[in-house]
Amino acid sequence: MRAEASLADLLASVSSGDREALRLVYQRQSTRLFGIANAILRDREAAADAVQDGFLRIGQRAGQFDPARGMAEAWLAAVIRHAALDLARRRGRELPTDDPTLGDMPVAPEALERVAAQFEGRRLRDCLGALDEKNRKGILLAFVHGLSHAQVAARLDLPLGTVKAWIRRGLLQLRECLA
Amino acid sequence: MPGVIPTDPGERDLLAGEYVLGTLDSRMAAEVAAALPVDAGLRASVEAWEARLAPLTTLAEPEAPPPDLWERIDAALSPRPAPRTAAARPAWSGFWRGWAIGASALAAGLAAMILLRPDEPARLMTVLMTQQDQPAWVVEAENSGALRLASLNPRPVEAGRVMQLWALPPGATAPTSLGLLPTEGRLTVSPSSIRPTAGMLIEISLEPPGGSPTGRPTGPILFIGRLTAAGAS
């Protein structure tokens, strides 16, 4: 039955132009994906635009998803994240970093446990836990909330000049730890 | 712009990591996005970083999207004339509900008043709205591919700055400049490199004299709207 088709199967149908398959993908994933876009844009109207743009990209690029190389959920999230990041950049990332809706959740201690709640997240949790606090927080704020280097610097009260280097160092350490 | 993507393998992989993390500026992010279809090595790096960091997406709280969002996506995927009721319905009470819901009805209504003659076929149009959801410009695509613009509520522009018009086709990662605009009035713009399509974002940004020096919007987006097919009434 269609209702039980896997996301990967639905994406294969989407790539051949099946609009109903795309609607089913939307039905199953839109709440999660809208949350991802809204965490970056913190504006429901803008997040809706990003999800719309993202679904147009999904419609065009579903054929690029290869189930042998990753999970459909992760592929969908990546498409939506980049649509949201592109919109955030076009808006000049003018989002204030003292925005009260910008929670501390991604940098709260329990955040790492949420990451580890999925099987694939356990090693990432351990590797993030091994980073210096400022490197870890910079990476989490950038990924979850789409913050620029300047915004990470303001948010963590760190000098801008060093934030970029810290984040790069954090990425290098993560790559090594996860290898 | 050749040479922007580094050749050193370590630098390339870090660039891919920063692209996935989202910290690259507009220009570099667009360079990476443009290189991906033709640079298999960079693509593999980006895919590996997406896989490494994917578990972090669970840190975003799931949230239900606006109830009409699928209808908007569906309409943007295949342009159909808006329902005839869109222009005729008593929309004024809900007029300011935001361009996401109101813009297509608004575009149909305003266009009927301002630009369209009766019995013309459905056309692509939009109303560019301010961040406060105030209508600012009506944009209508002609069959020739030209865009006709008319200002609705002219506002002064910051001294020493100009307004620049941009178009972002669905799925594109960087907008295309369509030139500088007067602060008010009516004009027709004939894009040379793009054709108006349903779902295309039209934006006006605030830029230094002469326009954006980078070829991408550098100032705030003043007005924004998305082209949709509006039914002629």
From TrEMBL, chain A:
Keywords on record: Sigma factor, Transcription, Transcription regulation
Q: Which residue numbers delimit the RNA polymerase sigma-70 region domain?
A: 26-93
Identify the residues that the record assigns to the RNA polymerase sigma factor 70 region 4 type domain, covering every copy.
Answer: 122-174
Pfam (any one) = Sigma70_r4_2
Decide whether keyword Nucleus is in the record: no
> Out of the domains of life, which is the source?
Bacteria
Kindly indicate whether the keyword Transcription regulation belongs to this entry. Answer: yes
Q: Which InterPro entries match?
A: RNA_pol_sigma-70-like, RNA_pol_sigma-70_dom, RNA_pol_sigma70_r2, RNA_pol_sigma70_r4_t2, RNA_pol_sigma_r2, RNA_pol_sigma_r3/r4-like, WH-like_DNA-bd_sf
Q: Which residues form the signal peptide?
A: none
Q: Which NCBIfam families match?
A: sigma70-ECF (TIGR02937)
Q: Which family does it belong to?
A: Belongs to the sigma-70 factor family. ECF subfamily.
PANTHER family with a match to the protein in the record: RNA POLYMERASE ECF-TYPE SIGMA FACTO, RNA POLYMERASE SIGMA FACTOR SIGZ
Q: What is this protein called?
A: Sigma-70 family RNA polymerase sigma factor
What organism is this sequence from?
Belnapia mucosa
